[in-house]
């Protein structure tokens, strides 16, 4: 072993052979290029992934379904805000409910990815990779869309989410406890990384992101709302990214579901309101998708929770969305209507919702689109108002 | 020399003096599994006491007015979360968890058998528990030192049983409140199953998601596991309670198990012997200790040893660490997890952690909130799971801070020379040599590719 980075170095030196791209202290050329080519697109896309599987029947209860009372009609169930004759919305989602009323938010119900088992980890892999099965693709659908365009993205996470892996112009960002003191130190470290391309690229990306965030109020503290507001600031910056990724875990409510969602749904609601506030006028050209890896069992389990299920709920919101509707082929909650006698039956493929969002954001042709989301998918045609 | 570097950095937590193992690096690794250094448990509480501390915190959170602290104490370390203000009970919780973490770090930094310690930590992460729910707030480190640590050099089935029926796991994956629908309690109270532990037992702890089990296997496993719970009220120890147990036999992956507590050992024995379990453990081990995409020859050899020895973990370790492929020099290196970075930094500096809470905060900032892994799958293990722009920037910020804290009386040039020898890259050596101060030199060393990768 000549050096812990030796094999990457050998490999990557071949990739960038003779191009002189990694002169000490300079950005890798493709990154500089990306910074130059920052899109002027006004279209913005925010994806919010709820890891752990949100209970769709808590977020958007089917209070008008004849099977509802038997499954969820207990005294503990909070009184829902009305949506239509069948559906209500959890009272913790007050902002989302207002957006529904002002026709800026649509609910997509009984939705699932093509995955039909009940593992979080496989389901998230499939949802983020966009493959037809888990682990057939190792890059993300959002990354492939970015690669096909000149757009860039930022994930408000310490690690790169799978959905954005495989993109040159994907960044990550979290608040700094203590900003770097010395530019000289950073520059020297960038030079030290010259032979280690993954480290050099990551650092160059991070430094570029710092430049972009300088105009915005630097976020402090923690929590989803802070990250959501900062995402809005990045998306609003003239040369900022046009795609943002947010995620939050803790939705795996096997026990004490009512109490836990009673805290978590308002926190999500507040974060989304913070995102909108921070986007300000850009809300008009932003689309927000809130999704989760699968739904939960239709009946409560033995400990006031729910176990892993299949279909669940997604939200799509923004200035162009045909809001004020629940988009669903509702399968019903009767015992014979449930999948395997236990789960809400999926009637919509989540990819059919992702697809029109990708098309609007990235303007891809059919061939590129098939790389982003392979398979025969019929995009939903009633997502847009304008 | 090259093998020496692999022994130190790929398999261990980085040795300050590479020359100390240069005479026979393979033996240095393998001998650690014969005599792993003892872990000092002095001053550490048992899980029953941890459960008491946890309950006190939850009680105080439910009655905040009666337990509010006053004055200066109330304004420092003021948390903003669902548990409310910093009550005296929360102070106890905080001190307990910091003490547990500090003892653990002390061992990881000072142990003479770092590869064996990596082995322990691998299994602790494999059987991940987290303080992400109220009932496990003080329970994570006791799970490690009670269930994992004493059992990682024996039979896999023994480790599996200890990890699964420890109070922390029963609480974390909800089995403590899973009730057989036809049990005495289930019929009386209209309560029922919780299949959380059952699913993860199959998917994460034994045979893996592709072993071909069905939803019915999960449900049957959940029924078999009913009754295993944590003592009511204040005892905080694992009990089998007949009145929660689902009556009748259960059939799982084609095998039928009797009613009663004895079914647990029968099931765990079968799961540990399932061919898919050996394959799953071997691929996880090789991915963790060697490289992200380990060569099949290595994985197969480790899996074969697992099957041949009925999951004798010491023998499995020997098969892994004596295999030539594990020592292959041209395999792509891994990107260390944040805690691995921190531990190797302290080992190289030969310094204790000055402030455990502060260092834990840095590890969290770098993406790893210790004792709070985001899911029962534990911390992910691929370089791509950790190497991101923000992560690299945070590691540099950490390196800068550590440079200030520890850099005054450390010569980073010597430190890197002694730890990496002629494996030190020219680029790193030159950057450190040109530093304007001891603090900056140490920051460069800790931010170097050599330290971040293994």
Q: How many runs of DSSP E, i.e. beta strands of chain A?
A: 11
Largest sheet of chain A: 9 strands, mixed
Low-confidence stretches of chain B: 66-78
Assembly type: heterodimer
List the helices and strands and how they pair.
The complex is a heterodimer of chains A (386) and B (454).
Chain A: H1 6-15, H2 29-36, E1 44-50, H3 56-59, H4 68-72, E2 81-82, E3 88-89, H5 94-101, E4 105-112, H6 120-129, H7 141-147, E5 153-155, E6 170-172, H8 183-192, H9 197-213, H10 224-236, E7 243-248, H11 257-279, E8 286-292, E9 312-318, E10 326-327, E11 348-349, H12 350-362, H13 366-372
Parallel strand pairs in A: 1-7, 1-8, 4-10, 4-11, 5-6, 5-7
Antiparallel strand pairs in A: 2-3, 4-9, 8-9
Chain B: H1 2-11, H2 25-34, H3 47-62, H4 64-67, H5 71-75, H6 88-110, H7 114-126, H8 140-148, H9 156-165, H10 167-172, H11 184-189, H12 196-205, H13 215-225, E1 228-230, E2 238-240, E3 250-252, E4 255-257, H14 262-273, H15 275-289, H16 296-308, H17 313-321, H18 338-349, H19 356-365, H20 389-406, H21 412-420, H22 426-433, H23 438-446, H24 449-452
Antiparallel strand pairs in B: 1-2, 3-4
Protein architecture, described:
The complex is a heterodimer of chains A (386) and B (454). By secondary structure, chain A is α/β, with parallel strands linked by helices. Chain A folds into two domains: 44-175 and 219-372, Alkaline Phosphatase, subunit A (3-Layer(aba) Sandwich); 180-218, no CATH class. Chain A contains 13 helices and eleven strands. In chain A, strands 1, 4, 5, 6, 7, 8, 9, 10 and 11 form a nine-stranded mixed sheet that branches. Chain A is globular, with a radius of gyration of 22 Å. With 454 residues, chain B is mainly alpha-helical. Chain B folds into three domains: 47-157, no CATH class; 173-273, no CATH class; 338-452, no CATH class. Helices cover 56% and strands 3% of the residues of chain B. The longest helix of chain B is centred in the N-terminal third of the chain and has 23 residues, at 88-110. Chains A and B meet through helix 1, helix 6, helix 8 and helix 9 of A and helix 1, helix 12, helix 19, helix 20 and helix 22 of B.
């Amino acid at each position: 072993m000549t050096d812990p980075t030796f094999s990457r170095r050998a490999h990557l030196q071949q990739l960038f052979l003779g191009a002189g791209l990694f002169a000490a202290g300079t950005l890798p050329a493709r990154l500089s290029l990306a910074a130059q080519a920052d899109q002027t697109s006004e279209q913005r896309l925010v994806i919010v992934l709820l890891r752990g599987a949100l209970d769709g029947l808590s977020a958007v209860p089917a209070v008008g379904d004849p099977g509802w009372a038997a499954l969820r009609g207990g005294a503990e169930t909070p009184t829902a805000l009305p949506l239509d004759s069948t559906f209500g919305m959890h009272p913790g989602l007050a902002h989302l409910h207002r957006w529904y009323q002002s026709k800026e938010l649509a609910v997509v119900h009984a939705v699932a990815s093509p995955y039909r088992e009940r593992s979080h980890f496989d389901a998230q892999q499939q949802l983020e990779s966009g493959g037809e099965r888990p682990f057939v693709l190792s890059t993300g659908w959002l990354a492939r869309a970015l690669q096909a365009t000149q757009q860039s993205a930022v994930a408000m996470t310490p690690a790169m989410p799978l959905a954005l892996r495989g993109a040159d112009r994907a960044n990550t960002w979290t608040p700094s406890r203590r900003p770097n003191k010395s530019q000289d130190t950073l520059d020297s470290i960038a030079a030290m990384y010259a032979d280690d391309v993954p480290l050099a690229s990551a650092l160059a990306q991070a430094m570029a992101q710092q430049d972009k965030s300088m105009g915005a109020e630097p976020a402090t503290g923690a929590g989803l709302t802070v990250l959501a507001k900062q995402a809005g600031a990045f998306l609003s910056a003239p040369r900022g990214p046009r795609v943002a990724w947010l995620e939050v875990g803790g939705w795996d409510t096997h026990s004490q579901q009512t109490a836990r969602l009673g805290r978590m749904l308002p926190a999500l609601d507040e974060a989304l309101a913070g995102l909108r506030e921070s986007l300000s006028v850009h809300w008009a050209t932003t689309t927000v998708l809130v999704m989760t890896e699968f739904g939960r069992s239709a009946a409560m389990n033995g400990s006031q929770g729910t176990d892993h299920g299949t279909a669940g709920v997604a939200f799509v919101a923004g200035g162009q969305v045909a809001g004020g509707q629940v988009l669903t082929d509702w399968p019903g909650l009767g015992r014979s209507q449930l999948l395997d006698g236990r789960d809400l039956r999926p009637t919509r493929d989540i990819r059919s919702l992702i697809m029109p969002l990708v098309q609007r954001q990235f303007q891809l042709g059919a061939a590129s689109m098939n790389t982003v989301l392979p398979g025969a998918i019929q995009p939903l045609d009633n997502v847009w108002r304008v | 020399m090259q093998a020496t570097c692999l022994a130190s950095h790929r398999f261990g937590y980085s040795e300050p003096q590479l020359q100390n193992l240069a005479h026979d690096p393979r033996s240095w690794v393998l001998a650690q599994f014969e005599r792993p250094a003892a872990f000092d448990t002095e001053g550490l509480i048992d899980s029953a006491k941890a459960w008491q501390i946890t309950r006190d915190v939850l009680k105080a959170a439910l009655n905040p007015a009666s337990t509010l602290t006053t004055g200066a104490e109330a304004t420092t370390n003021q948390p903003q979360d669902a548990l409310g203000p910093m009550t005296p009970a929360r102070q106890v919780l905080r001190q307990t968890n910091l003490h547990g973490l500090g003892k653990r770090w002390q061992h990881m930094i000072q142990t003479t058998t770092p590869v064996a310690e990596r082995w322990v930590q691998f299994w602790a992460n494999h059987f991940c528990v987290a303080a992400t729910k109220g009932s496990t707030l003080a329970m994570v480190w006791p799970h490690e030192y009670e269930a994992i640590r004493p059992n990682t050099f024996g039979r896999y089935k023994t480790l599996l049983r200890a990890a699964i029926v420890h109070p922390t796991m029963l609480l974390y994956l909800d089995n403590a409140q899973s009730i057989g629908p036809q049990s005495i309690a289930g019929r009386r109270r209209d309560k029922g199953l919780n299949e959380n532990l059952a699913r993860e037992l199959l998917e994460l702890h034994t045979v893996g998601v592709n072993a071909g089990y069905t939803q019915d296997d999960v449900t049957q496993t959940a029924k078999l596991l009913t009754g295993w719970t944590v003592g009511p009220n204040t005892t905080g120890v694992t009990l089998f309670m007949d009145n929660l147990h689902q009556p009748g036999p259960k059939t799982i992956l084609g095998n039928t198990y009797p009613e009663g507590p004895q079914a647990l050992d029968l099931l765990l024995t079968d799961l540990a012997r399932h061919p898919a379990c050996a394959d799953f453990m071997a691929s996880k081990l090789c991915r963790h200790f060697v490289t992200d995409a380990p060569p099949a020859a290595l994985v197969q050899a480790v899996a074969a040893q697992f099957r041949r020895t009925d999951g004798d973990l010491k023998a499995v370790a020997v098969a892994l660490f004596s295999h030539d492929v594990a020592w292959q020099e041209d395999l792509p290196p891994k990107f260390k997890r944040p805690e691995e970075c921190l531990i190797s930094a302290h080992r190289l500096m030969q310094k204790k952690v000055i402030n455990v809470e502060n260092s834990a905060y840095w590890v969290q900032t770098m993406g790893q909130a210790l004792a709070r892994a985001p899911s029962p799958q534990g911390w992910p293990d691929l370089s791509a799971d950790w190497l991101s722009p923000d992560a690299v920037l945070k590691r540099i910020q950490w390196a800068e801070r550590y440079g200030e804290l520890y850099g005054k009386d450390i010569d980073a040039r010597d430190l890197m020379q002694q730890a990496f020898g002629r494996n030190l890259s020219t680029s790193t050596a030159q950057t450190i040599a040109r530093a304007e101060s001891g603090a900056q030199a140490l920051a460069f060393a800790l931010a170097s590719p050599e330290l971040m990768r293994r």
